[in-house]
Amino acid sequence: MKVCSDHGVATAARKNPLYEEVASEFRRKIDLGVLRVGEKLPSVRALRNGRRVSTATVMEAYLRLERDGYIRVRDRSGFYVVQPPTRAIPQPSTARAVTPALPVGISALVAEVLQQGGSQKLVPLGVSTVDPSLLPMPRLNRAFRRVLARWPLHSARYTELSGAPALRRQIARRALALGNAIDAEEVIVTAGGLDALNLALRAVASPGDVVAVESPTYFGVLQALEAVGLRAIEVPTDPRSGIDLGLLERTLRSQRVKAVLAMTTCHNPLGTVMSDQAKKDLVAVTARYGIPIVEDGAYSDLAFDERARRPAKAFDQKGLVVYCGSFSKVLAPGLRLGWIEAGRFRDRIRAFKGVTSGMTSALPQLAVAELLATRYYDRHIKRLRLQVAEQTRLYAQVLRDVLPPGTRMTSPAGGNLLWVQLPGVDGTAVYRRLMQQGVGVFPGEIFSLRGKHRSFLRISCGALWSPAIERGIELLGRVCREI
Fold first, then answer.
1. What separation in angstroms does the CA of 450 have from each of 103, 234, 313, 359?
2. Rg (Cα) of the chain, in Å, rounded?
3. Cα pseudo-dihedral 36, 37, 42, 48, rounded to 10
4. Domain 136-376 is found in CATH 3.40.640.10
5. What's the pLDDT tens digit per position in 195-225?
6. What CATH number is given for 11-81 in this structure?
7. For the segment 323-361, what is each residue's pLDDT rounded down to a tens digit?
8. What angle in degrees, to the nearest 10, is found between the helix axes of 44-51 and 55-67?
């Protein structure tokens, strides 16, 4: 029988890893109130010596507690208890039926939501951007100034259609760190994430073709499908595990599907982060039928677990996965800067880019490349990920207390969104009533072709907690109960 080096405990007799036992003990103490919010946990050295375990075991236990929302690290200070995680609330239910292929037409409701959702007069529970105070604007402005000083003629001539070489190299370098070995020549810079989706879809499908999409899915995906003139088949997607791979394969076997569009990391609106095995299986399923995947990774840097950010593209052996990324969610929405890791579709995407969006503005590319070349960007992402995770848990905790009994809500593994299923309540009616009272939310029906998620709302947790946010959530609860 093999003996573990930590405290001489036999691995054969232990059901869970030692770090999970240590983490579970702290979870119980926090749940029972033995350890209270704001209290400092033992240092790594103290816990290691007191429990006679390794440093790696202590660090892994603390990382698990941090991921689950029990503790937070403060620079040069240690680990502290934060607000207890929300009490268990059921996940939204998902139908297990694939709908027939339909032409995509964006409803008037989507146009209305987009027009009003970004209003500065509304309490921002709808728009999915993070609070401006969490974005690295001073550093980004400094990068712009350095670029202006170094390249005063930055925009005096056309740049390469694929984008600034400096930025493409940085994107390729970061992709390699996530297990995705690509060449900078495969990277194409775009005018934002939606532009990336449009170009990718044009490259993998033609007008009238059928694309399989998740259900629910981001309404911007539906806009991109409409722009290309495509039809869509909606495949049910589970808030915990992602797109139903069994139903997807059945669909690929029985329908003439030209591509699959999926958000494998930080799904919008579900917050799902598919496991590495599920991502690998997704790539394997589509590869068997020679069908490309358009992978939307706009929110992937906001996965609460750093190790979960590996994209499906990392498992692609045939160049069939086209990865679309964006800097909008983590640097600045107004940059409108995204990219595509194009695989075998590089030449087609370049050709479409030449006749649609054309070259991407040089100045923001050079500034972002400057920022990516420093260690600051990685520190910013780590800090932002923790801040967004903490905010999302806080919003969920308060929503749980104000929404009517029978409400279901996601427990996201990344991103800043909550997908809320109301018990017998019309989400669109809630949206309209709240708009009249100065609160913005997004109605669930716009996240589907058939409007079948009408009892849902998407809540953004991007804004810092404030009296206005608290009043908005209380009003949301009151309106739901009244309707």
1. 11, 10, 30, 36
2. 23
3. 90
4. yes
5. 999 999 999 999 999 999 999 999 999 999 9
6. 1.10.10.10
7. 999 999 999 999 999 999 999 999 999 999 999 888 899
8. 120
